[in-house]
């Protein structure tokens, strides 16, 4: 895989985002990760709404979809009312058939840079509390547990419990000056 190129999603990406989300859900199920994502759960309207209220980013490598994520500027369902100090990453998705092993980390770094460029001090995420493997992954790459949310509403299905995590994205010297450009070399 060569360079990772980042761009904002458009309406022409909606079908690909749904496929990527469904493929990620199938991969989780094959790994024995149940109770999180299910194929067919989110459609094009979900991503259309996410693009209207936040940002949906596409990552490509060698002209192929490598992954995507949503970046929101508030998340009251998980975090309650908050001052504008954070960006909130959701639906971090990696194309397992073409993405290299560190693609998820690279996508998170890009989201961190974007939040910092917007003047936000933190990148926050919520992780299904029962998914110990994913909680450990985020902890190992610098996210710290700052709380828990029980009964968070879901796009479909019953409410679930989540671990709330954040990372300081302005703490690294000069980090806030980095802007996510239309492309990124992926050498983070």
**Distance between the first and last residues' Cα:** 14 Å
Mean of pLDDT:
86
Percentage of residues in DSSP E strands: 25-35%
Order of helices and strands: EHHEEHEHEHEE
Number of helices: 5
What's the overall geometry?
A: globular
Helix content: 25-40%
**Which spans of ≥5 residues are poorly predicted at pLDDT below 50?**
173-188
**Structural class by secondary-structure content:** alpha+beta
Main-sheet strand order equals 1-2-3-4-5-7-6
Number of strands: 7
Largest sheet: 7 strands, mixed
| Gyration radius from CA atoms, angstroms | 16 Å
Write the layout of secondary structure elements.
Layout: E1 5-8, H1 14-30, H2 44-53, E2 55-61, E3 64-72, H3 76-79, E4 86-94, H4 103-117, E5 122-128, H5 132-140, E6 144-152, E7 160-168
Parallel strand pairs: 4-5
Antiparallel strand pairs: 1-2, 2-3, 3-4, 5-7, 6-7
Report what the structure shows.
The protein is α+β, with helices and mostly antiparallel strands and 188 residues long. It has 5 helices and 7 strands. The chain has helices at residues 14-30, 44-53, 76-79, 103-117, 132-140; strands spanning 5-8, 55-61, 64-72, 86-94, 122-128, 144-152, 160-168. Helix 1 crosses helix 2. The longest helix is centred in the first third of the chain and has 17 residues, at 14-30. The chain is globular and about 35 Å long.
Structural descriptors:
single chain; 188 residues; alpha+beta; seven-stranded mixed beta sheet; 29% helix; globular; disordered C terminus
């Amino acid at each position: 895989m060569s360079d990772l190129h980042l761009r904002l999603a458009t309406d022409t990406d909606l079908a690909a985002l749904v496929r990527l989300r469904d493929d990620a859900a199938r991969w989780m199920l094959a790994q024995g990760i149940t109770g999180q994502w299910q194929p067919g759960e989110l459609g094009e309207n979900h991503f259309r709404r996410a693009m209207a209220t936040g940002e949906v980013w596409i990552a490509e490598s060698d002209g192929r979809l490598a992954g995507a994520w949503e970046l929101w500027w508030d998340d009251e369902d998980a975090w309650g009312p908050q001052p504008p100090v954070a960006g909130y990453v959701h639906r971090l998705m990696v194309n397992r058939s073409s993405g290299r092993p560190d693609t998820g980390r690279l996508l998170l770094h890009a989201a961190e840079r974007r939040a910092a460029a917007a003047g936000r001090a933190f990148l926050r995420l919520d992780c299904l509390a029962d998914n110990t493997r994913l909680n450990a992954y985020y902890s190992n790459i610098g996210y710290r547990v700052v709380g828990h949310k029980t009964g968070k509403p879901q796009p479909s299905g019953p409410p679930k419990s989540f671990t709330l995590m954040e990372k300081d994205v302005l703490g690294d010297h000069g980090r806030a000056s980095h802007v996510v450009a239309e492309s990124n070399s992926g050498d983070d």
